[in-house]
C-alpha cells in the first residue's frame, strides 16, 4: 500500500452542520479521533466529514455523519439515540465499519489459498496437443 503524502484526519476534514456550533467541533473531533487511523489511507484534500443533528436534545433527535472521499460513493450514517454522546459514538462506529467494508470490497484478498490455484493435469496436457495458431489469421483478428 502506498503512503499518502497528506493523510486525512478528523480534525482537518470535519465540518459541523445544523444543530452544532463551532464550539462543539473540538469535542466532536476528539470523540471521532479513533477514525484517524481509518482515514489515513485517503488524501486530506479529497476527504470531507460533516456531522449534523436534527432536534438536538429533544426526544427523537437524529444525528447524521456524512463522509465524502474522492472516487468513492458518499457514506451516510445516522443514529436516533436519545443521548447525544451515544449517538455520536454510534455514527462514528458505523462509519468505521462501512469504511472497512468498502476497503474490503475494493482491495484484492491476500489469501494464499485463493491465489495458488493450479491447473488440473488434464487441461495442461490437452493444451500441448493443440495445433499452433495460424499467424495470418491471428493478425487479421487483431487488426
**Largest beta-sheet characterization:** 4 strands, mixed
Query: What's the helical proportion of residues?
Result: 40-55%
Strand runs, count: 4
Which strand order spans the largest sheet, edge to edge or round the barrel? 1-2-3-4
Low-confidence stretches: none
Q: SS-based structural class? A: alpha+beta
Distance between the termini: 38 Å
Describe the global form.
globular
Using the CA coordinates, give the radius of gyration: 25 Å
Tell me what portion of residues adopts beta-strand conformation.
Answer: 15-25%
What pattern of helices and strands is seen along the backbone? Answer: HEHHEEEHHHH
| Mean model confidence by pLDDT | 80
Report the total helices.
Answer: 7
Could you characterize what this model shows?
This protein has 143 residues and is of the alpha+beta class. It starts with 9 loop residues before the first helix and ends with a helix. The protein is globular. Strand 3 (62-69) and strand 4 (75-79) form a beta hairpin. The model has no long low-confidence stretch (mean pLDDT 80). It has 7 helices and 4 strands, in the order H-E-H-H-E-E-E-H-H-H-H. A 4-stranded mixed beta sheet has the order 1-2-3-4.
In short:
The protein has 143 residues and is an alpha+beta fold.
Amino acid at each position: 500500500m502506498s503512503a499518502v503524502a497528506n493523510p486525512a484526519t478528523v480534525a482537518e476534514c470535519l465540518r459541523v452542520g445544523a444543530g452544532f456550533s463551532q464550539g462543539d467541533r473540538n469535542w466532536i473531533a476528539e470523540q471521532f479521533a479513533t477514525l484517524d487511523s481509518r482515514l489515513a489511507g485517503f488524501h486530506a484534500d479529497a476527504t470531507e466529514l460533516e456531522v449534523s443533528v436534527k432536534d438536538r436534545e429533544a426526544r427523537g433527535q437524529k444525528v447524521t455523519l456524512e463522509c465524502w472521499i474522492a472516487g468513492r460513493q458518499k457514506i451516510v450514517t445516522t443514529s436516533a439515540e436519545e443521548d447525544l454522546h451515544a449517538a455520536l459514538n454510534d455514527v462514528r462506529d458505523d462509519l468505521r465499519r462501512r469504511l472497512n467494508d468498502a476497503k474490503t470490497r475494493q482491495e484484492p484478498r491476500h489469501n494464499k489459498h485463493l491465489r495458488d490455484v493450479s491447473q488440473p493435469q488434464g487441461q495442461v496436457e490437452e493444451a500441448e496437443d493443440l495445433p499452433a495458431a495460424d499467424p495470418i489469421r491471428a493478425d487479421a483478428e487483431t487488426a
